Automatic annotation (TrEMBL):
This is Major facilitator superfamily (MFS) profile domain-containing protein. InterPro entries: MFS, MFS_dom, MFS_sugar_transport-like, MFS_trans_sf. One of its GO terms (cellular component) is membrane. It comes from the Eukaryota. Its main location: membrane. The keyword Transport does not apply. It is a multi-pass membrane protein. Residues 514-570 are annotated as: Disordered. Residues 534-550, 561-570 have a biased composition (Basic and acidic residues).
Amino acid sequence: MDSPDDSYDEIMAQAGNDGKFQRRYNLIFNFGAICFASMSYMSIILALNKPPHNCHVPGMDRYNITDANLWKNLTLPRETDNRGQLGFSKCQMYNVTEQHLQRHYSEWSFGSDDIIDCAYGYDYDRTYYDRTPITEYDWVCDKGFRETNIFIYNRLGELVGTVIFGHLGDTLGRRPVFYLSILIITVGRLISMFTAAYYVVFCIAAAIGSMSAQSILQSPLIIAMEISKSELRGRISMVQCFGWTTGLCILAMVFWATKDWFWSLMIITVPIALFMFIPRYTIESPRWLATQGNYREAMVQLRRIASINGIRELAFDEQMLEKQLANHRSDTVIVCSVTYLTLVLLSSRMDGNPFLNFMYQALIEVPAALVAQRASDRVGRRATNAVALVCAAAVCFILVLIVRDPASEMAATALVTFVKFCIGITFFVVNLRSIEIYPTCLRQTGLSVGTIAATIFGIVGPYVVHLGTEYDVRYPYLVMGFTSAVGAMAALFLPETLHQSLPNTIEETQQFGKHQRFWSLPKPPKATAEQEDGTDKRPYGGDAKPEESMRLAVSVDDDEKAQPTDDGRK
């Protein structure tokens, strides 16, 4: 007897599970929409980039000094930075009084008792930024924690939003949650642009803008996987990875071109709202509708898919769909997050061009996705994930040993990029496997539960970066090394999902992976004897004639004449 999942796959195959609709849907929503979503979500990182700075000490023009380093030597004390190197203090100055300025600077003599905190504001390196909230409102030194706190609020907003939208995705549907996600991220970022002068309001706006960060990724990805054949799951996830990476590269270029955080946010935020106005391809998942018992609306969505795929007739109607899928209904669903966010934040604090550093870190996700897709479809999700995390952990521990050595700067940069490559692989596999392992009725909720755990731990990411920036650059790599090692061990105990059907009910999920061997690689399922001899007699599969399987041909054109209401009634 066919499983419910097989029945749905057969129905979906008749409507077309690898046709024009799927390709266009992925291009529009899993590439285009995700491209702009990644820009809006990650824009806060570049907007809050902290350029090099030091105390502003007035009087330089009085002596007609044009060499900034000479003036720094005269007015700024020296201190050891986070790499153990001696440099000018960022937050302290010598107490240069009017009495000093009345004498030639060659007569000045300062000691440790003359050191004070910055009294006249700050000078910022304007090479890459003309304006950021940090340079406008001096969020440095005694206010330096404001930047870190904003990133924390960003993650807290993501945590709350993941809880809310994850549940709504399985109760209201994937489509309304996708619309709401676009609205939330747009409104949140727009509010942020006009409230930087009001720190508390800015933090709240940053949190609001991040509430839908996960649901805006999950909703189109889940829909695409639920309307496509199982062999395409890895490819669909890779398309979304390409969209994400493309968005991050464009984001860096926009900031580099404008050098202004306000106009950069305006340019990248507004266009995402356009994806709310593509009704022809903004569908609800027929699979989810079937689990809710809304077979009429499920038929509407199946016919829309079939029509765009060039299939004029479907060999089943609403009653037959309900009979076949009745048992689909249900009465009811960490590590990568820490390491990924930490690496992204660190990239904007590395020496050199912050935009190129950010873009390089983004570009490495392209080969990571390609390798992840190929490896996860060859050796399985579990092995790919575990090996990538082991490699990331090993390299992080190597970085702890060399990152403070100026002579090893190039090697350290290359190793950091490799860690990002490994974490890119794990993110690809984790997202793919999370979607595959949860039942249809709770797929978005279940995916959100995993994201919630990751986000809770990911909240420490900005603090880890703060420790590395202000105290010792080795701390972030030490933390990432340990978390990656723990993640590798945890990954080995999750079930393999390659070549497995998506579970539709909680009961199927409870049985999922129980009979898998631990030390084994997944093998593709063998064709049944009926499939091999061409006499497949499944209700909606093989070459059985319509009258033999009691199927009713329903014209797509007839359905298009009947416009359904919101509750699925005609």
